[in-house]
Amino acid sequence: MQAMAEIRNIVILTGAGISAESGIDTFRDAGGLWEQHRVEDVATPEGFARDPALVLRFYDLRREALGRVVPNAAHAALARLDAEWQPENGRGDLLIVTQNVDDLHERAGAPYQTRSRVLHMHGELKSALCLACGTRSRWDAPLADRPPCPVCRAPMLRPDVVWFGEMPYQMDRVYAALRQADLFVSIGTSGAVYPAADFVRDAREMGVATLELNLERSEGSLWFHESRQGRAGDLVPAWVEEVLG
Ligand code: OAD
Questions:
Q1: How remote is the CA of residue 99 from the centroid of ligand 1, in Å?
Q2: Is the CB of residue 122 below 6 angstroms from any atom belonging to ligand 1?
């Protein structure tokens, strides 16, 4: 690993494991979402076309559940890093790329000046996408009752969540940040879904140092320069402490 003093620009990838201690189910762990539901029913455009009511209800319940959970120590530690790791104070750039559709990174704290350094590559539960006009609107209410789009009024809103077979958001920005990065850190993700699972290999090809923080070794674990196993609520605050010195 590179000495901490040499690190300026950091890209962090987070997955469901970072929100597990907040009480949100992961996808692939025992009892996870993909044991309870068929991916093709609730996370594909074809599933939505077959049974929109089922899909809208699935995401309505998940959006509603966000009201019953709070960010944990790992989200708080990354919020602190976001607040303190700024080019102006001699540190560097930071981008938090999350595969999560929850809003716990944002809610982790007042330190966030803007949401611009958190990128939801798989979309957000609190956003709705209009199938008629393509507008993405902040959304906090159910979609199952087919409310109108705030822009074009068509009752054609779907969850603004990236389904299998669809293109994740803002990949250009992720790759641009990786090209500038000195360190790539992957937190709480199984490394089972592409393109996120490839970020570690992309980073290595670009000469970036790589670190994994996960409950267990992920599928791509061997690609990382260093892998630490444990709960995100323990590992992430300790790592942030190390980085901030
Ligand atoms: P997964 O459920 O595939 O993986 C969660 C990872 O977090 C596993 O490797 C767990 O070992 C780890 N984990 C569980 N509890 C943890 C804890 N307390 N601390 C640290 N790690 C913990 O979730 P993702 O990798 O996020 O995409 O899944 C990637 C994508 O697959 C999701 O964004 C979603 C899903 O299908 C779409 O829906 C498009």
A1: 9
A2: yes
pLDDT in tens, 149-204: 999 999 999 999 999 999 999 999 999 999 999 999 999 999 999 999 999 999 99
**Ligand 1: nearest atom to the Cα of 213:** 20
Q: ∠206-82-76 over CA atoms, to 5°?
A: 120
Provide the 3-class DSSP secondary structure of residue 178: helix
Pick the atom of ligand 1 nearest to 166's CA: 39
3-state secondary structure 63-120: HHHHHHCCCCHHHHHHHHHHHHCCHHHCCCCEEEEECCCCCHHHHCCCCCCCCCCEEE
User: CB of 223 closer than 6 A to ligand 1?
Assistant: no
Long-range contacts of range 194-201, CB-CB < 8 Å, 24 or more positions apart?
195/168, 195/171, 196/13, 196/15, 196/97, 196/99, 196/121, 196/168, 199/11, 199/13, 199/97, 199/174, 200/224
For residue 1, pLDDT beyond 90: no
For the whole model, what pTM was predicted? 0.96
